[in-house]
Amino acid sequence: MRSFSGRDILSLKGFEREEYFRVFQVAEALAPIARDRRNTDLLASKTLVTAFYQPSTRTRLATEAAMHRLGGHVTGFSDAKMTRAGDFYQESIKDTVHMLEFYGDVIAMRHFQQGAPAEAARWSSVPVINCGDGWGEHPTQVLTDMYTILKEKGRLDGLTFLLIGDMRMRTMHSISYAMSQFDIQAAYVSPPDMSLTDEFKKELDGLNLRYREVEHVEQAIAEADVLYMEPVVQPDYTKSRDERSGDVGMTPANYQVTRALMRKAKPDSIILHSLPRMDELLEEVDYTRHARYWGEAFNGVVLRMALLALVLGKME
Ligand code: CP
Q1: Which residues belong to CATH 3.40.50.1370 in the chain?
Q2: Is the pLDDT of residue 153 over 90?
Q3: Is it the case that residue 248 has pLDDT exceeding 90?
Q4: How far apart are CA 193 and CA 182, in angstroms?
Q5: How far is the CA of 53 from the centre of ligand 1 (A)?
Q6: Residues with C-beta less than 6 Å from any ligand 1 atom
Q7: Is 177 helix (H, G, I), strand (E, B) or coil?
Q8: Are 6 and 311 contacting, i.e. CB atoms less than 8 angstroms apart?
Q9: Ligand 1: distance of its center to the CA of 57 in Å?
Q10: Distance 285 CA to ligand 1 centre (A)
C-alpha cells in the first residue's frame, strides 16, 4: 500500500481497496476522541488551511472540527470574495497556493472549477485535499459514505446500491470509483438530461463496475441494500455561488424517496444523502429505520481526523 504521508487526496480514481480499509481503521482508532467530545494533541504542531471558493456547511466545518479534535490549528477563507482571487485581481490558483503553502501544513480546497485542487497540488509543497471541485469529485464525502456503510452493514462486498439523482454530481463520480474497488452492484436512476455521460460509462466499463441504468426507482428498490441520493433540483456547481431565484421546480416523483416507497425496500436497507437536500428526500423519511444521513455528521468528522492524521504523517 502506498504511504499516505505527504499525499494529496484529489480523487478516488485509483484509490485502492486496502487504502479504504486503512483509512477506516485509523478512523475507528480516533473515533473515541470525537465520541467523548475531547480534543487531543496529535496534530498540535500542525495547521490546516481551508481554501473554500464555494459555499459549504458540512465539508469545511467537519474538516476544521477534525483538526480541532486533534489539537491542530486552522486558518483560511470560506468566501473567495474576501481574497485577491475573488476581487479585481482574480489571483490564480498557482499564485494563491504559493502563499497558502507557507501558512500551514495541509490545504483543504473546494472550488467551482473541476481540477482546481489538482492544479493547486501541482504547485503546493504541502498536501492538498479536494473538498469538492465543480462537477468533478468529492473524495472526503464519499470516504465518509463508505465508512458509514461499512459500519452500518458490517461489509462493503456483496452489497447492491441504488443511486438516485443527478449523475453529473461530483459525489456520483467519486462513489462510482469507490464501488469499483468492492464487489458492489449498482443501479443508477436519473432524469435523462442528468444521466451518466458516455465518457464516464466507458471509464466505469474499464473499471469492471457491475452496473445498470434503470428508468424507474421501482425497478431496483427491492434489491437495494444502500440508497444513495443527490438532488435533481440543483445549483450550477461550476459557479462560485448560485443563488436561488424564483421558482426552482419540484422533484419528479421518480427521483423522490418517500415513506411509501420505502415500504417496497429491504427492511434493513439504508439511505445516505450527502446533503443539503431539496424535496427529493422528504422529512417523513427522517423518522424511518432507513435514514443514516444524520449519522454522517459524526462520521464525517472522524473520517477527516483520520485523513489529516495520515497525510500529515502522524499515523502510518
Ligand atoms: N456534503 C457536502 O458537501 O455538504 P456541504 O456542501 O455543506 O459541504
Answers
A1: 17-137+297-311, 139-233+250-295
A2: yes
A3: no
A4: 28
A5: 13
A6: 56-59, 132, 141, 274-275
A7: helix
A8: yes
A9: 6
A10: 20
Give the ranges where the chain is alpha helix by DSSP (H): 17-35, 58-69, 93-100, 116-123, 139-153, 170-179, 198-206, 259-262, 295-311
CA distance 134 to 174: 13
Number of H helices, E strands in the chain: 9, 9
Cα(153) to centroid(ligand 1), Å: 24
Determine the atom of ligand 1 nearest the C-alpha atom of 55. Answer: 6
For residue 59, give the ligand 1 atom closest to its CA. 8
Mean pLDDT of 165-187: 98
For residue 128, give the C-alpha cell.
492538498
Q: Which amino acid is at 7?
A: R
- When mean pLDDT is compared across 41-45, 162-166, 167-171, 246-250, the lowest value belongs to 246-250
- The domain 139-233+250-295: what is its CATH number? 3.40.50.1370
The answer to whether the predicted template modeling score (pTM) of the entire model surpasses 0.85 is yes
What tens digit of pLDDT does each residue of 294-306 get? 999 999 999 999 9
Task: Give the residue among 164, 161, 214, 177 at the shortest CA–CA distance from 15.
Answer: 177
The CATH topology of domain 17-137+297-311 is Rossmann fold (3.40.50)
Banded pLDDT at 243 (limits 50, 70, 90): confident
